[in-house]
Please model this.
Amino acid sequence: MKYFKLSEFDSPDMVGSGEAMDKEFLSRLDQARSLCDIPFKITSGYRTKEYNESLLARGYKASANSSHLKGLAADIACTDSVKRHKIITSLLKVGFTRIGIAKTFIHVDNDPNKPANVTWVYG
Model:
């Protein structure tokens, strides 16, 4: 990868867990970052089951079957509408078809077990 270190994708409760990220996902994310020419700050990459459950317990809208658990998802920090447009455009150009938009981040995943060609907003 040109733009990322695996450690950026570590679950907060397990150093080195970024190694569990799907290599195709990371390659595609790296391509999107190259096209976008804006740094991507990863706020969530791989998640252990325990960490994901702790998010649910604290009231976060984490899914019990989150693609983060499979190393197939990342959240990219973003609060600026111009940057949000550029990031989403680059993700779509490299073939991502699952994008979630929140006030402070963009979720992207390529989970083959979930519907493709979807974009959603977090309330």
Q: What stands out?
A: The chain has three helices and five strands.
